[in-house]
Amino acid sequence: MKVLGIVAGPRKTGHTARLVEETLKGAEEAGHETVLYYLSDMEIKPLDEGENGYSYPEDGFTELMPHIESMGALVLGTPIYYDHVSSRAKLFIDRLYYYSRSHGEEYRKKFPDGVKFVNAVTCGWDRADVYDEVVKWLNGRMTNYWNMSVHGSLKAHGTGNNPVKENEKLLKKAKDLGRSL
Ligand SMILES: Cc1cc2nc3c(=O)[nH]c(=O)nc-3n(C[C@H](O)[C@H](O)[C@H](O)COP(=O)(O)O)c2cc1C
């Protein structure tokens, strides 16, 4: 199975990247193929207006499409920015509109069924339950619109004082989650 990892924060050595990378390591140990993209390396634009309503820009997302269309699991990591997912994460989700029923059944069919979804959310606020609503929102979008099944959630809070790279318990959870995919 192909596991697609997406890091939607700007920092390749940041907390979010570390969590996604560890999950992918676990998935590799379990024999899965992994592909990792840092959205900060790519230009992904918002939807545009087109002849039949919307058009989909030719940009970094085009490179992601073959992986999206062949993935068995998606690991999406985002830092919390102003109480929600990062703009990079939101743009990634917006661009999945290409695969929505609203665009057309033939496009919807290109999206694999039953993709396992893992979210990795990191935030500075040191309170464990603080962004549970955001995690719920993220999981809800993936299940409702693209029929994914939520496989697990990883959350790092208080990352300023408790960096992910030193949080062995969380890193183990991430690797175990990857192995269990
Ligand atoms: C622009 C910006 C906005 C942020 N907003 C919040 C916030 O609303 N709540 C919070 O707990 N942390 C907030 N943070 C902190 C980040 O979520 C936190 O440091 C995160 O772990 C960074 O992930 P990274 O290391 O992958 O970049 C913000 C950071 C930035 C740069």
Task: Describe what you observe in this structure.
This protein is an alpha/beta fold. The protein has a single domain (2-18, 32-179), classed as Flavodoxin domain (Rossmann fold), CATH 3.40.50. Helix content is 36%, strand content 24%. Helix 1 (15-29) links the parallel strand 1 (2-7) and strand 2 (33-38). Helix 1 (15-29) packs across helix 6. The longest helix has 15 residues, at 15-29. The chain starts with a strand and ends with a helix. The site of flavin mononucleotide has 16 residues, from helix 1 and strand 5.
Short description:
The protein has helices at 15-29, 60-70, 87-95, 105-108, 132-146, 168-179, and strands at residues 2-7, 33-38, 48-50, 53-55, 73-81, 84-85, 116-122, 149-156. The protein is α/β, with parallel strands linked by helices.
Lay out the secondary structure.
Layout lengths: L1 E6 L7 H15 L3 E6 L9 E3 L2 E3 L4 H11 L2 E9 L2 E2 L1 H9 L9 H4 L7 E7 L9 H15 L2 E8 L11 H12 L2
Parallel strand pairs: 1-2, 1-5, 5-7, 7-8
Antiparallel strand pairs: 3-4, 5-6
Helix pairs in contact: 1-6
Bound molecules: flavin mononucleotide.
Rg over alpha carbons: 16 Å
Write down the overall geometry: globular
Mean pLDDT: 97
Tell me roughly what share of residues is in helical segments. Answer: 25-40%
N→C terminal distance: 9 Å
Our estimate of the beta-strand percent is: 15-25%
What's the CATH topology name?
A: Rossmann fold
Keywords:
two-stranded antiparallel ribbon; binds flavin mononucleotide; Rossmann fold; 6-stranded mixed β-sheet; 6 helices; 8 strands; alpha/beta
